[in-house]
Amino acid sequence: MKIAFIGLGNMGGGMAANLLKAGHTVNAFDLSAEALARAKDNGCATFTSVREAVAGVDAVVSMLPNGKIVDSVYVGDVIGYASKGAILLDCSTIDVDTARKVTAEATVAGYEMVDAPVSGGIGAANGGTLTFMVGGSESAFARAEPILAAMGKAVIHAGGSGAGQAAKICNNMLLGASMIATCEAFTLAEKLGLDLQTFYDISSKSSGQNWSMTSYCPVPGVGPQSPADNDYQGGFATALMLKDLKLAMEAARSVDANVPMGEKAAALYEAFNEAGQGGFDFSAIIKTL
Ligand code: NAD
Fold it and tell me: Domains of the chain by range and CATH?
């Protein structure tokens, strides 16, 4: 297949490389000359505009920073410029309303489109082990699935348009709150005189067990290798967790949902980010407790 890839940054660069490995041809466009040069080294054909990159392709994949940019790229330069019949896949994390609006405009113009945000960070993007949660019609999902499978280990149909973004922000709201709760539990355990490895051994086999503890432990030297063992470098940046929590709060307001734990997590990550810690992994919030 000939696929246009828009936004080859930290995540998109590795994802496009995996499409190439699967035997697809990739037309790359990014505003950053550096990102484009890396894409070229990996074997992508590079273009100087979105419109040129999407001409004559079977599919368009995007991995962009936010909803405003996704809207302007699709409405301004993809819809009406990509070949008729091309399937459109936006893998960025954006707000549900923009995802639905852009898909609606694409549909009116005769395209099928899915929102397909990912779980997994830069390592998973490079390694082709992302999880995709997909919003769109049955027929759009059927066409998107094999393309996404080349970049991930799991591709799940979440429901209609916007459902992928809804699943993503609900998941990450849960992750943000559970990470803070895990950090609190270890901090309290230590103050109560417990050995932290012993607490891990107990809690990881008890009802407090959760992913933030057993796959991503915020305490250095405890549990599997995690960013805590590397001075909280790499991993999932606090600034990105905050972005997702803000999207979750915006979505909660739009449907009048009561999310007090999510609100608290958003406020704590906002304060941590404002304290200049946005580049550190989100588990570094343990330092504030
Ligand atoms: P990034 O900033 O590294 O990459 C974004 C790329 O988009 C950049 O190369 C930028 O130059 C390019 N870009 C911006 N505006 C553009 C435009 N108008 N046209 C073409 N290119 C444009 O960000 P990232 O970490 O790769 O994240 C991308 C998306 O993936 C975000 O929505 C983020 O929330 C989501 N995400 C990131 C992670 C992560 O761990 N980094 C994990 C899951 C989801």
Answer: 2-160 (3.40.50.720), 166-288 (1.10.1040.10)
